[in-house]
Each structure stands twice: as structure tokens, then as C-alpha cells.
Design brief:
The protein is built from ten helices and no strands. The protein is mainly alpha-helical. Helix 2 packs across helix 3, helix 2 crosses helix 10 and helix 4 packs across helix 5.
Length: about 210
């Protein structure tokens, strides 16, 4: 009886733990994707995170580090030191052209503001554009997620209005790819079984 009571009171505490694992799994998968796309060790991604860089800003660190040809730790240090992303970009002469991501249709506000800068000026004047932190985080993540998942930038932008951040977008797009892969695999197995059955029937007729 005492054992049953103990189990009864212990059970509710298991639910938050499962939720935490689920959330951690999504974030961990995002880190793996960032590591894979930018071709850096996953432990380096974790080091950046330990510098108190937000998860969806980690791609920005690696994006700028590659273009500035400095270590990610250098970029992360400037960011945690209080510099804006635009200040860091200007310091390393990374112009607004580097952040531009083409889309079929310019999205509306608030997430379309980043593209509005480019739409409202002819290309020869893009060097005069000034992007804020949200603009840079949006543009870099849209390019990263579209490239990593081999999907359109428009699809990622459309999902931005549905989700709170790009980690959640990565999770949804990845889940869709998994379902597609499962359907393809299932169809392949079904075809294989059909061919196998056909061959078996053919042999039966031959005997």
C-alpha cells in the first residue's frame, strides 16, 4: 500500500520532464542543422550558445564569422559585449548586399520589413541600407533554413508568421520532410513487394 501511494504522488512529476526532453530535442536538432549547414563542429555551436547567444542568432554568428574570416568566438564576443548585428557587420565591412535573400513575393509586415529595405531602393543604392537586429536575424535564418531543408525561401517566410521563432520553423519543416521520406519509403517497399509477388507467380507458372 505504501508503495502504491508513493508511485501515485511521483507520477505527476514525470510530465514536465518529458516536456523538457521534447523541447531540448528540438533545440538540439536545430544545433545539429546549424553545424551541418555551416560546416563547423557541433561542439563549436554549443560554445557559442554558452556565450548567451540566442539559438536563432547562432546562424548569424557563423554567417558573419565566415564572411569576416574570423572565429565565431570573436563575433559572439562582440555581440555579448553589446554591439548590434549591424555594428558588427559594418566593422567587418559586410554590406547589406550580403544579407539579401530573394523571394518570389515580398511579404507584408512585420516580417516583410527586411525585404522592404531592398524593394524601396534601386540595387545601386543598396549600400546605403541599414538593417536592424530583427532584419538580420530574419534574413540569415531564412537563407539558412531554405538551404538546409532544400525548400523555397517563400515557404520559410510564410511559416514565420505562424511560429514564434526559427527553431520552431526548423522543427515543422523537418517533420514534413520526415513524413515525405516515410511515404517514399513505404511506396518503394510496396512496389518491391509487388514485383516480388509477380516474380513468384511467374515462376509458379513455369513449373
Amino acid at each position: 500500500m505504501k508503495l502504491l501511494v508513493a508511485l501515485f504522488f511521483a507520477t505527476p512529476f514525470l510530465v514536465p520532464a518529458q516536456t523538457d526532453v521534447s523541447v531540448t530535442g528540438s533545440i538540439g536538432n536545430f544545433h545539429f542543422a546549424v553545424s551541418n549547414y555551416y560546416r563547423v563542429p557541433e561542439r563549436e555551436v554549443m560554445v557559442i550558445r554558452e556565450r548567451h547567444i540566442r539559438d536563432q542568432e547562432i546562424p548569424v554568428v557563423l554567417f558573419m564569422a565566415q564572411r569576416a574570416r574570423v572565429s565565431p568566438a570573436t563575433i559572439a564576443g562582440l555581440r555579448t559585449g553589446g554591439r548590434s548585428w549591424w555594428d558588427i557587420a559594418a566593422h567587418y565591412r559586410i554590406g547589406p548586399e550580403a544579407f539579401y535573400v530573394p523571394v518570389a513575393a515580398v511579404p507584408g509586415p512585420p516580417y516583410g520589413r527586411a525585404w522592404g529595405h531592398y524593394k524601396n531602393k534601386p540595387r545601386q543604392q543598396w549600400r546605403t541600407i541599414v538593417l536592424d537586429d530583427d532584419d538580420i536575424v530574419t534574413l540569415v535564418n531564412v537563407k539558412f533554413l531554405a538551404g538546409y531543408h532544400h525548400t523555397s525561401t517563400d515557404r520559410i517566410v510564410a511559416l514565420r508568421g505562424k511560429h514564434a521563432d526559427f527553431v520552431a520553423i526548423h522543427t515543422e519543416v523537418g517533420r514534413g520532410h520526415g513524413a515525405t521520406a516515410a511515404r517514399v519509403k513505404s511506396r518503394g517497399q510496396s512496389k518491391g513487394q509487388s514485383r516480388g509477388q509477380g516474380k513468384g507467380q511467374g515462376k509458379g507458372k513455369g513449373h
